[in-house]
């Protein structure tokens, strides 16, 4: 619609904020424009035609009206609501964490096609794939950090060069692998094992379409999960309210 203030975008609601008596401000993640703030007037009013679209983790097609610096919702049609999440509190809490984490690495008005695809796939994995939540969480965190430019180096020991580090450790501060005997190198290191290292490499270097297609025993999975979580916190230099909520369950 050239020459008009209207645009049509597909976006996932990262966050909703109540405002005034019945409105919401939505933070959408879109492929074309990255983060977009949208005023959804009447979204909290009973009978609102786009109420289903205006909830966190809803993926919808929006018709937006631009007025000055603000975009206003004109119409909305749901594409995917991830109903499996909404029936499971743990999965829902992880979904909120995925959204908050993605918002932290996304910029307004900068295309984010890969980040949106990764988030949609992560929410689908939580909703429908019946994979262990810790496995999905670790894979999502590590791959998101790669897409955001924080990819760790896991091809071998950063000190001695061994392709298969002995008693491998991940330096979550510097984002490199080390053998246990090669020292901490000034950063915080976390122990891995053969299986958790193989899973880490699958996440970093494998086919993204098969990101969640691996299995781990409980102990290697816990090692991988701890390393992924602390690597994420160290690289982004912040905590996440939604993660605290998930861990409180």
Broad structural category: alpha+beta
CA-to-CA gap between the ends?
A: 47 Å
Strand order within the widest sheet? 1-2-3-5-4
Please mark out the parts with pLDDT under 50 across 5 or more consecutive residues, or reply none: none
Question: What general form does the structure show?
Answer: elongated
Quick one: how many beta strands?
9
Query: Order of SSEs, N→C?
Result: EEEEEHHHHEEEEHHH
Rg from Cα:
20 Å
Kindly report the average pLDDT value.
94
Beta-strand content estimate = 25-35%
Largest beta-sheet characterization: 5 strands, mixed, barrel
Helical proportion? 25-40%
What is the count of DSSP helices, taking H or I runs of 4+ residues?
7
Architecture overview:
This protein is an alpha+beta fold and 249 residues long. It has seven helices and nine strands. Strand 7 (169-171) and strand 8 (176-178) form a beta hairpin. Helix 3 (113-128) runs antiparallel to helix 4, helix 4 (133-147) packs parallel to helix 6 (218-236) and helix 5 (194-205) crosses helix 6 (218-236). The radius of gyration is 20 Å and the shape is elongated. It starts with 5 loop residues before the first strand and ends with a helix.
How do the helices and strands line up, and which of them pair or pack?
Elements: E1 6-19, E2 23-30, E3 34-40, E4 59-67, E5 70-80, H1 83-86, H2 89-104, H3 113-128, H4 133-147, E6 153-157, E7 169-171, E8 176-178, E9 189-191, H5 194-205, H6 218-236, H7 241-248
Parallel strand pairs: 3-5, 6-8
Antiparallel strand pairs: 1-2, 1-4, 2-3, 4-5, 7-8, 7-9
């Amino acid at each position: 619609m050239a020459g008009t203030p209207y645009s049509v975008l597909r976006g996932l609601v990262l966050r909703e904020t109540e405002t005034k008596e019945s409105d919401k401000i939505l933070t959408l993640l879109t492929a074309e424009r990255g983060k977009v703030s949208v005023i959804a007037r009447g979204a909290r009013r009973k009978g609102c035609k786009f109420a289903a679209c205006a909830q966190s983790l809803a993926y919808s097609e929006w018709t937006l009206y631009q007025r000055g610096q603000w975009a206003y919702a004109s119409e909305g049609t749901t594409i995917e609501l991830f109903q499996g999440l909404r029936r499971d509190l743990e999965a829902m809490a992880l979904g909120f964490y995925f959204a908050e984490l993605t918002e932290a690495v996304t910029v307004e008005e900068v295309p984010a096609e890969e980040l949106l695809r990764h988030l949609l796939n992560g929410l689908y994995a939580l909703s429908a794939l019946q994979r262990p939540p810790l496995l999905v969480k670790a894979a999502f965190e590590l791959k998101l950090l790669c897409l955001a430019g924080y990819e760790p180096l896991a091809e071998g020991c950063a000190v001695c060069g061994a392709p298969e580090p002995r008693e491998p450790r991940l330096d979550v501060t510097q984002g490199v692998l080390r053998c246990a005997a090669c020292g901490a190198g000034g950063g915080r290191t976390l122990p891995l094992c053969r299986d958790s290292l193989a899973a880490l490499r699958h996440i970093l270097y494998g086919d993204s379409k098969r990101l969640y297609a691996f299995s781990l025993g409980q102990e290697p999975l816990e090692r991988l999960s701890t390393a992924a979580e602390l690597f994420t916190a160290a690289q982004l230099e912040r905590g996440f309210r939604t993660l605290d909520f998930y861990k409180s369950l």
